[in-house]
Amino acid sequence: MKKFLVITCFFFGGIAVSQAQQTSPVWPGCEDAEDKTECFNEKLNAHVREHYEYPMKNNAYVRGQVKVSFDINKQGEVVVKSVEGSEPLVNEAARNMLEKIPEMEPGTLNGEPDTRNFTSTYRF
Description:
By secondary structure, the protein is of the alpha+beta class. It contains three helices and eight strands. A hairpin with a 2-residue loop joins strand 6 (107-109) and strand 7.
């Protein structure tokens, strides 16, 4: 009987967890998109192309690779958590680019605003 009770608890607990409804943050302009996640990714890639400013040192562009981590918080604001790379000028330029991401509709968990983390690697 104890085994049956334990199995039943796991079963119903699993159903409750699997029914959690999540939505991704919605980038401005993606409100009516059929696939909001795909639209978010397209807008983020366009933002990187348009807003990253290559730093210069000794009349040459400085290049490098960075791993960035940022949150879209419950208010839809970008919070840069980390920018890691071997070239400090590239790190600073990447941070500046991330800070220009527009506010957006936050992601939700079961209908309530929820913070979402994003991590990406870029080669500039």
